[in-house]
């Protein structure tokens, strides 16, 4: 048997073994793996999830049986200390010697610790392994018992921000300290970094930029960090995540060639200066670079395996390694691709910045608008896959390149790349180097029949997971091309789409979830299908959430949004944002009586936060007695119709926008839909109500109103498109009734109007035919159905107060009237906020 020894049992070392045993000819080889950590290879990319409750086994990339089944000998807790290249042997700290024919160095990297005076003090940690995390968790628990609240993270890069999230999850207040003038300086420009910083600071994480740390303060344990500008940051724990350095010490003592700044020098075959020894992953210096991402490491593993099995004529490493990446940092989506910083006379940067939504997008294109060179996305990275494919495959850009990040703004088809437009050579999963051709062919030749089969065969999506939406779309497209029916069933219990279930409920007049389940489903149902069918009942019969309690989400069950400390918010309806002084006083009195935090929202309402569950009926009794109704802030329904003051006050106003907004909000209040709905009415083209960023919006113009539909704000903002122009109020309401009812009938669960329109066959032109031209002959029915919902509206909270049996659910404990004494608050400016959980 030919002996292959792998030194290092991290993600890349494991991937080498996985790649090797999948290739033909591997039967002649015996693989032995040495890892100095006490456990099998685990997922370092998602290491922060260890703080969220995942165990080491959850993060493990394999089972112990996997090594046995594949004839791989795994030695954990054993450090290789020397290589005898002449005799082709390795020596371990257990005084054992093993012979090899080929040796693969996958020793990875260790945390770089800057030479700062005092880093050896107690309370200073690195963020690299599970053992590091265990030590951090134990120390955090210890110092919190002594009243400590502050901790710092040294490093504002990818790993540093992950570490900051970990510190926050441990119940400490994190401070990120970065030497550079911005966060993530290698991936983001100033605009993107500023946006990321503002999003992170909203989470009460301190950011300290341009800070050079002179020394760690404290005697035996850390008490603070002294910066070069003589500022002292008082902290009781420090986590260092300031970069990595290659673990090349074994190569050095063995006489292998290493770089001036570290790393084992390799060629494009992953061979070191000794042809029998290969280096892969973060220890390998390829083209004078160390690559700290998973995808290049996995490609190196594949190249090394191919070279050992088939020699120099086989696969080699690409000359240029793409460092594009997509991730979520502390809940904020961040992505960069290509050259994100390129600036010269031949390049134009197109930038979209929305500080209100916390979104920054930049693409760099050539002056002739023909080539995409790179880009940055912060706050919303949903366009990453299509942008990366355009860049990576040199695909043609649309006539207006800005459409790539702004979306189509005139009702025409989206400028995004369709998955089937990509060449077969397009790499969809960069972690596993899986192409579009490999995915589609596995379906077309019937090797695979569904997404899970494709994942099992190709390993696509098994790395970072960012490619999963595109892989899923490719599988569906390939299935459709074969004439197979592809349905977006709502869950495993119903092999039907939401639209099919809507029709089944309506035709059969079902009024109970279990009737639907018994006749058209299987099993007991789940948290996905139960709220969907409850919503369908509401959309057909106008049933309130009170009628189907056991199938509702938590928010609908208690008619309020649950907040992060277990309290609830109260949002009375303020139609069109218009409110009398008397009603404002009532809201103020309620907030004062029940000690609630108050916030005026972008939807022109007042949110009241911090209500205990058992106080909700008391609060709503006061509000309803004073003429308020439920604002449905918790439901998949109409939230609000925003308006400007209109021609009643504004000298530019062309119509009564406030009055029309109130009329529309009162008409559509309470209707249940697949996703929440928002509206806006502006009295002129100055657009103070932001009507073109809503599910429906109206702008007053000469000759009537322009009606826009299918826009939204949020993480993935979309401009609304023009459905009809210069129409009167009666026509507006007629078209609105038809549009909303058709959307309610046909959209999938939790699908926004913008996404629904994008996926609608025929797009806007088809929708105009249905809504305006009545091409399906259903407009009268749609209008009648909407009018029925309008006529049967009931305030859900008024129902609760009038029926004592419905009040029973508003109690923290089933056997006691006491409040939950675990709920605690801390001061926030002149109000309060939830105390962070330990």
UniProtKB/TrEMBL annotation:
Pfam families xref list: Fer2_BFD (PF04324), NIR_SIR (PF01077), NIR_SIR_ferr (PF03460), Pyr_redox_2 (PF07992), Rubredoxin_C (PF18267)
The protein's annotated pathway: Nitrogen metabolism; nitrate reduction (assimilation)
Q: Which cofactor does it need?
A: [4Fe-4S] cluster; [2Fe-2S] cluster; FAD; siroheme
Against SUPFAM superfamilies, the record matches this protein to: FAD/NAD(P)-binding domain (SSF51905), Nitrite and sulphite reductase 4Fe-4S domain-like (SSF56014), Nitrite/Sulfite reductase N-terminal domain-like (SSF55124)
Give me the segments passing through the membrane.
none
Would you identify the family this protein belongs to, as annotated?
Belongs to the nitrite and sulfite reductase 4Fe-4S domain family.
Please give the name of this protein: Nitrite reductase large subunit
């Amino acid at each position: 048997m030919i002996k292959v020894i792998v030194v290092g049992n991290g993600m890349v070392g494991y991937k080498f073994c996985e790649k090797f045993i999948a290739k033909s000819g591997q039967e002649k080889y015996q693989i032995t793996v040495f890892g100095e950590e006490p456990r099998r290879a685990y997922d370092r990319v998602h290491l922060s999830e260890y703080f969220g409750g995942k165990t080491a086994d959850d993060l493990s990339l394999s089972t112990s049986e996997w090594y046995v089944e594949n004839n791989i000998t795994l030695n954990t807790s054993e450090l290789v200390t020397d290589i005898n290249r002449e005799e082709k042997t390795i020596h371990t700290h257990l005084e054992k010697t093993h012979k090899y024919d080929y040796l693969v160095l996958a020793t990875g990297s260790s945390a770089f610790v800057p030479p700062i005076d005092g880093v050896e003090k107690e309370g200073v940690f690195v963020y690299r392994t599970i053992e590091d995390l265990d030590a951090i968790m134990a120390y955090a628990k210890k110092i919190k018992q002594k009243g400590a609240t502050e901790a710092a993270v040294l490093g504002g890069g990818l790993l540093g921000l992950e570490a900051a999230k970990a510190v926050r999850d441990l119940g400490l207040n994190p401070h990120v300290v970065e030497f550079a003038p911005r966060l993530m300086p290698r991936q983001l420009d100033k605009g993107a970094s500023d946006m990321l910083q503002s999003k992170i600071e909203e989470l009460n994480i301190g950011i300290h930029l341009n800070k050079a740390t002179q020394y760690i303060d404290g005697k035996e344990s850390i008490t603070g960090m002294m910066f070069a500008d003589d500022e002292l940051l008082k902290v009781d724990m420090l986590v260092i995540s300031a970069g990595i350095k290659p673990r090349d010490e074994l190569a050095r003592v063995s006489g292998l060639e290493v770089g001036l700044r570290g790393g084992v020098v390799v060629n494009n075959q992953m061979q070191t200066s000794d042809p029998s020894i290969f280096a892969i992953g973060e220890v390998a210096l390829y083209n004078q670079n160390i690559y700290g991402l998973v995808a290049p490491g996995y490609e190196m593993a594949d190249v090394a395996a191919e070279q050992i099995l088939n020699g120099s004529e086989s696969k080699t490493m690409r000359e240029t390694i793409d460092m594009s990446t997509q991730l979520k940092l502390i809940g904020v989506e961040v992505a960069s691709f290509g050259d994100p910083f390129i600036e010269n006379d031949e390049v134009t940067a197109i930038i979209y910045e929305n500080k209100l939504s916390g979104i920054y997008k930049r693409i760099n294109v050539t002056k002739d608008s023909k080539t995409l060179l790179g880009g940055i996305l912060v706050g919303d990275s949903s366009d990453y896959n299509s942008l990366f494919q355009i860049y990576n495959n040199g695909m043609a850009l649309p006539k207006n390149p800005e459409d790539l990040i702004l979306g189509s703004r005139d009702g025409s088809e989206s400028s995004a790349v369709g998955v089937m437009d990509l060449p077969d050579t397009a790499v969809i999963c960069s972690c596993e180097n899986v192409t579009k051709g490999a995915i589609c062919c596995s379906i077309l030749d019937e090797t695979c029949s569904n997404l899970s089969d494709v994942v099992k065969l190709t390993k696509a999506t098994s790395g970072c997971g960012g490619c999963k939406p595109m892989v899923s779309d490719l599988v569906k497209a390939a299935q459709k091309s074969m004439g197979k029916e592809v349905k977006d069933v709502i869950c495993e219990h119903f092999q039907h789409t939401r639209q099919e279930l809507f029709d089944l409920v309506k035709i059969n007049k079902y009024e109970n979830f279990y009737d639907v389940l018994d006749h058209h489903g299987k099993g007991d149902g789940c948290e996905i299908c139960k709220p969907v069918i409850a919503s369908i009942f509401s959309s057909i019969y106008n049933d309130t959430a009170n009628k189907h309690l056991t199938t509702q989400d938590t928010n609908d069950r208690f008619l309020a949004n649950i907040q992060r400390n277990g309290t609830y918010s109260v949002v009375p309806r303020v139609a069109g944002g218009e409110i009398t002084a008397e009603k404002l006083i009532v809201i103020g009195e309620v907030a004062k009586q029940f000690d609630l935090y108050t916030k005026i929202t972008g939807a022109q309402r007042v949110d009241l936060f911090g209500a205990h569950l058992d106080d909700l009926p008391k609060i709503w009794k006061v509000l309803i007695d004073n003429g308020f109704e439920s604002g449905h802030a918790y439901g998949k329904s109409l939230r609000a119709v925003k308006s400007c003051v209109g021609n009643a006050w504004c000298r530019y106003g062309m119509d009564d926008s406030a009055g029309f907004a109130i009329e529309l909000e009162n008409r559509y209040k309470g209707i249940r839909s697949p996703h929440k709905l928002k509206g806006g009415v502006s009295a002129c083209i100055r657009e103070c109500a932001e009507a073109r960023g809503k599910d429906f919006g109206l702008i007053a113009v000469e000759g009537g109103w322009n009606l826009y539909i299918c826009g939204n704000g949020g993480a993935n903002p979309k401009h609304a498109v023009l459905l009809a122009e210069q129409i009167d109020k009666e026509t507006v309401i007629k078209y609105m009734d038809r549009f909303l009812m058709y959307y309610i009938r046909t959209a999938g669960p939790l699908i926004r109007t913008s996404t629904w329109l994008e996926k609608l066959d025929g797009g806007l032109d088809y929708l105009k035919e249905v809504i305006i031209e009545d091409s399906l002959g259903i407009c009268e029915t749609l209008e009648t159905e909407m009018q029925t919902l309008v006529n049967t509206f009931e305030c859900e909270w008024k129902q609760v107060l009038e029926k004592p049996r419905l009040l029973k659910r508003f109690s923290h404990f089933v056997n006691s009237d006491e409040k939950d004494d675990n709920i605690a608050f801390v001061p926030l400016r002149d109000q309060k906020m939830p105390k962070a959980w330990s």
